[in-house]
Amino acid sequence: MSMIWTISGAGRSVGKTTVARSIIAALSGSVYCKCGHNASRAAKPENFFPDIEKLIAFIDNAADQYSHIVVESNAFVYSNRSDITIYIDGVEGKTDFRPDASRLKAAADIVVTGDSSPACWKEFLLARLAGAKAVDDICLSLFKQQQWIFTTDPKICSKVWFEAGGDFVFGFGLARLLENIDRQGTLQAAAESSKMSYRHAWDMIKSAEKHLGSSLIDRHAGGKGGGGSSLSAKGTNMLASFRLINKEVAEFADKRFRQLCHGEKTNA
């Protein structure tokens, strides 16, 4: 049976979708679903449901297919069917708080507020998840969301990508595509989740492979269960390296920026 995660929040624009997608990226064998309104809004997730009954029906059908189901829904909190519930708080004067925000907060296992402790999140998750890296990745995403909502200090933003001979080789778009291939098992499904055409996804992979001199994915011929794709050893290594480099660059840049802002001496 699946472990069910529910992401709720104090109001709109507190980052529920960002947190849900980061948890999906951290957990293998997971699927993301959402319940909400605003039918005219673009870029909805594939598993989007306008009412709670249809969402619950999807979860019941998916329970034996996935290790984790990540649900973005305030209403689902009240079903009492979640294994882990995360609540993202808002800021007075900035967030349009829901009438039931205090109830959602009280029902949560993990509460992201301005003064909540990442160490407490980690302790709670380590008692429920086997993978220490997944726990670290989830806690980092929650910490980033905490900083984004509640920190008013200036922040430095950075983005790293790989080039060769002036040509683009590897960046966030390809990293997201490879993550989706690893999670979903087919290039077609990964392209759809990444909001790109199959042709564009395939061209992106082939261009990177040409520069790297090695395959990023292994393709499996169809059979009784159908064909699919998985990350090659090179693809797994490139994705891990890309994540690590961006994390280290961001952490170094943020530390250096804060040192300079506060007039502290730096050694680098």
Silhouette: globular
Q: Distance between termini?
A: 50 Å
Give average pLDDT, whole number.
Answer: 86
Q: What is the number of helical segments per DSSP (H or I, 4+ residues)?
A: 9
The main pleated sheet reads as:
6 strands, parallel
Radius of gyration: 20 Å
Number of strands: 10
Structural class: alpha/beta
Assign the CATH class of the largest domain. Answer: Alpha Beta
Q: What's the domain count? A: 2
List the helices and strands in order: EHEEHEEHEHHEEHHHEEH
User: Which sequence of strands runs across the widest sheet?
Assistant: 3-2-4-1-5-6
Q: Give the second-level CATH assignment, the architecture of the largest domain.
A: 3-Layer(aba) Sandwich
CATH topology of the largest domain: Rossmann fold
Please estimate the helix content. Answer: 40-55%
Q: What portion of residues belong to β-strands? A: 15-25%
Low-confidence stretches: 39-43
